[in-house]
Amino acid sequence: MARQISYTLQFGTRFDGGLPLIWSMLADEGLDARGIVVPRPKRYRDVLAARVAAFDGTPASPDELNAMLGLDQLDPERDLHFVLRITDLMQPPPHFCPAGDWFFEAGPRAAHYRSVFAPAPVTFALSLSNPAVMLSQAWSSEEYPGIDVMTPDPFQLHWAVVLRELRESCPEASIIAWTAEESPMIWNRVLQATSQTDADFSIDAQIHVAKILMNEEGGLRLAEYLESHPNMPDALRARVIGIFLKRFAKEDEVETEIVIPGWSDELQAQMDAHYAADLKEVAAIEGVTLLRL
User: Fold this and answer.
1) Residues paired with residue 49 on neighbouring β-strands, in sequence order
2) Environment class of 269 (CB within 10 Å of its CB; exposed 0-12, middle 13-18, buried 19+)
3) What secondary structure, in 3-state letters, does the chain show?
4) Contact, 4 vs 119, CB < 8 A?
5) What is the mean pLDDT of residues 44-60?
6) Omega within 30 of 0 (cis) for the link into 108
7) What's the CA gap between 272 and 250, in Å, rounded?
8) Please, what is the angle between helix 234-248 and helix 216-228, to 10°?
9) CA 12 to CA 72: how far, in whole Å?
10) CB-based contacts of 230: which residues, under 8 Å, 6+ apart?
């Protein structure tokens, strides 16, 4: 019987909190035993982007997949699940928010990515972030010429609209989503869902995001605590990580500064309400699994 191959395609930008996903997985030495393959993006990024740009409606050939993923170097009899990170869909200036249109035509372009890997099963993964925080980081990056002239309206970003478009364009692809704000506490669940495994990841992988936000002492003590308390239920693990984050947070990570011109505490309160309502809509979309505390 031919091996079965499936894929998780992580879409997003480097401003949405999802960047650590593949690096967390690579910190786990047990991936191979579970049939999880996480190639470094530089291996496939350019080849895949060129294939999608020249998309002609046909799936990638075995030779093309081999060039991107190195299939000939893997056991031909083992079922495999690949996790790939793709930023070309949402991050480049023509796609991020041209003329105020957030993630322009993300659905049709996602369908091209999905078709490249057909007929293998494909799951999409996205980290959702407070729109004001994401826009502020994009502004600070200086990667978007003209953003200071025509500033996107963060209140026009509805994650529910983005995910519905993805589902309508790719109805056979389910979506795993989570919130950047809660990701340090639920990171093991995010790793499990996106890699399609029930097994816990290594402690280093589980606390990869939390350690970014904590000082060195806190990261070491959290790792020691979790190692001494194996098989901890998800809810308890989340509470423990939350406690450590409060106690050992880096000073510069305690509060996110919004640098959008004219932004105020009142606008941020309105944005928080907007974001909360948006997440409720996301959770109700068929085919979308929203991971939360």
Assistant:
1) none
2) exposed
3) CCCCEEEEEEECCCCCCCCHHHHHHHCCCCCHHHCEECCCHHHHHHHHHHHHHCCCCCCCCHHHHHHHHCHHHCCCCCCEEEEEEECCCCCCHHHHCHHHCCCCCHHHHHHHHHHHCCCCCEEEEEEECCHHHHHHHHHHHCCCCCCCCCCCCHHHCCHHHHHHHHHHHCCCCEEEEEECCCHHHHHHHHHHHHHCCCCCCCHHHHCHHHHHHECHHHHHHHHHHHHHCCCCCHHHHHHHHHHHHHHHECHHHCCCCCCCCCCCHHHHHHHHHHHHHHHHHHHCCCCEEEECC
4) no
5) 89
6) no
7) 23
8) 160
9) 29
10) none
| pTM higher than 0.90 | yes
Kindly indicate the confidence band of residue 150, based on its pLDDT and cuts at 50, 70 and 90.
confident
Give the confidence band of 126 by pLDDT, cuts at 50, 70, 90. very high
Q: How far is CA 290 from CA 10, 162, 176, 265, 281, in A?
A: 14, 14, 6, 28, 10
> In this model, does residue 256 exceed pLDDT 80?
no
Q: Go through the domains of the chain in sequence order and give each one's CATH number.
A: 5-201+274-291 (3.40.50)
CA 156, CA 257: separation in Å to the nearest integer?
20
Query: Whole-angstrom Cα distance, residue 102 to residue 90?
Result: 9
- Give the whole-number percent of the chain exceeding pLDDT 90: 78
Q: What is the mean pLDDT of the chain?
A: 93
CA 100 – CA 81 distance, rounded (Å): 36
Read off the tokens for 224: 């020691």
